[in-house]
Amino acid sequence: MTASETALILLALGLPFLGAVLSPIFYRLFGSVAPWLLALLPLFSLLQFLRLVPRVAAGETLTGGYDWIPSLGIRFSFLLDGLSLTFAILVTGIGTMIVLYAGGYMKGHALQARFLSFMFMFMGSMLGVVISDGLLMLFVFWELTSITSFLLIGFDNEREASRRAALQALVVTGGGGLILLAGVLLIQNITGANSLSELFATGNVLRDSPLYLAAFILVLGGAFTKSAQFPFHFWLPNAMEAPTPVSAYLHSATMVKAGVYLLMRLNPVMGDTALWTTVLPLFGGVTLMVGSLLAIRQTDLKQMLAYTTVASLGLMVMMTGMGLPHAIEGAVLYLIAHALFKGGLFMVAGLIDHETGTRDLTRLGGLAKAMPITFAAGLAGAISMGGLPPFVGFLAKEGIYEALATGSVFALIFLVVAIIGNALMFAVGFGVGLKPFVGPKVETPKHAHEGPALMWIGPVALGVTALLAALFSHYFNGHFSGPMASAVAGETVEIHLSLIPHIGIPLALSVLTVIIAIVVYMRLTAARAAADTLFTRLGPGPDTWFDGFVRGLVALSFRVSQRVQPGRLEFYITATFISVAAVLLISLVSFGEMPDLPSIPRNFELGHWVIFALAIIGLLAVINAHNRLTAIVTLGIQGFAVAVLFLLLGAPDLSFTQFMVETLSVVILTLVMTRLNLVPSDHRSMIQKVFDGTIAVACGLGFSLLLMRATEVPFNDALTQFFNSYSKVIAHGHNVVNVIIVDFRGTDTLGEIAVVMITGLAILALIRIRAGRSAEGRQGTDNPVDEETVR
């Protein structure tokens, strides 16, 4: 792509994030007009993607971007083919409708501007997921969808149910994201590819790798948690605690489809294996059945739709992994159809709730006259969801049945699952889109009337789009579903499904589905009771298990914290030195890096031996000191002895520094000790002394061996030459040591100064502490601190 085209795509990606910034400003400046103005941002992004449709339909794959971290081969780049472009159009197109819908639904809310800011960030995150070419960039946007959905689901943060649902969604999808990160890194390691476009060029490298199973499990961990596959499905219905605009967007074009997108995206390099064609259909089929049965059980309109989304996601995953001819066509057709009818039906449910004060199906009826536009939009969504002509849902259902009606036993099992699942979703769809509007008028908490244009323009537009996609199926298949299926399959795919009925098994199966669905719809109350009895007998499900898991995790964390954080400084120091000794000694032994026994240096003169003996005498004096103050003073003997050795061996700067450190350390510690009321002698038992001594010897031995091993390595004077060459030229200093400390290692020196400063503050605070209790539990401030307080 040209530089200008690349800039426009990156602008289309950035506009939703710009909308997050502008939302509060626009609401403050323009008031009720703000939603119309803000909707122009995703609309512009939509137009940028729509103009690329002819090129992608002709077989082009468009890439572009710029280097982000060139040294690591990471680019901020995008990839637009049939799959990513169709997703981008759904994200921005439905996103435009959602911005308008939210403007009407949240009208008068004190935090309406903040809500739309969160929505725009959510939109930009999902858009980044579907158009990213870089694997790590895809992961960054992937996790950003989890964070922004957390903000949206928990928007009504004063309600405990909202907070729980938000936390649950974040834990499940965020945890799955970390699993996906491991999968992405493993895929990069196996193939050497840093981007999707590079990955597609590797052919069967990933499938043939002995690490394929590990990569497969990690990818499924990310995809299944994000797209609510059984047993991770429970977070999605609970996310209905979010305001309805969030639900409509979440279920139609964004987060929950990210997992399906990932599986479709990786199908060319990970699909067509026994694992892929077994695990995906199995989990997808179970999710389809569980979701559809749980949907029948509900009476809340949003919950009914939420569980059918779980079922639909299962159907998409099942079809993506079937590995049968035309299975991919059925999967992509259903994905597009689901985005259109589910977005519209959620908006209809929100309209009903907004204008009647309830979304309980048992308290609704006869709303057609009061809400005619909403009724038309709901009926259109129900017809498409039921797979009836003349909407695009009919094409999707025909594509699914055409793929599964192959005659094999394997396909026959999943064909039965698809028929039952589709029939139940048909009944639920008409339960939401038809049942509240027909029958006798039921009194509702609020006087029912048609909602504002901001709220019904979205479901109407999505219903009309679903209708036009079916009526002009040749254009729709050639420009959207066909290129999308080709990208998923990794080869050119042509889709010829249309509204014209073709006598055959798929049509007969569609008729059978409708018959079953009508029976269930007519006996919806009895079906609901039967489903409720079934799940009651099965007992607690994954939702309850999640609560138990969280409680167990909190309890375990508390107990571990009590063990490893007992509040005793002595314990922390002991644990630290044990870890240091273990790291030094184990690494040297396990990697065969033990040094040779040292020999006595030839230039080690008598004076050196005297200083060395003085250090040993000082060490013995410390060990045998009768009180702590004497031990601290005699401890300085070792430091001064080392400083003299530095001086004798030709390092006067280092010797001077050592003298200063030892002098200040002894003086400061002595002053501190005189202000503390400590036990005059060592209170430890002999066993404790031996234990502590062993740790000290291990640490000293570890450092000694490491230093001896380091000195055995051939000396590399590259840094010496660099510092000698550039100290005066760059830093304008003749003293190389000073230049290294102040300029070349200035940040390191600053860190050391910060450590000294913090230590000084800690000492000052320790001196100012006074034991005892006043009238509120402390005594006067002049009492010295006892030893237990210090510990």
UniProtKB/TrEMBL annotation:
GO terms for molecular function: antiporter activity. The keyword Protease does not apply. GO terms for cellular component: plasma membrane. Signal peptide: none annotated. Residues 689-768 form the MrpA C-terminal/MbhE domain. It is a multi-pass membrane protein. It is found in: Cell membrane; Membrane. Residues 69-115 form the NADH-Ubiquinone oxidoreductase (complex I) chain 5 N-terminal domain. Its main location: membrane. The keyword Ion transport applies. Coiled coil: none annotated. This is Monovalent cation/H+ antiporter subunit A. It comes from Martelella endophytica. Residues 132-418 form the NADH:quinone oxidoreductase/Mrp antiporter transmembrane domain. Residues 613-676 form the MrpA C-terminal/MbhD domain.
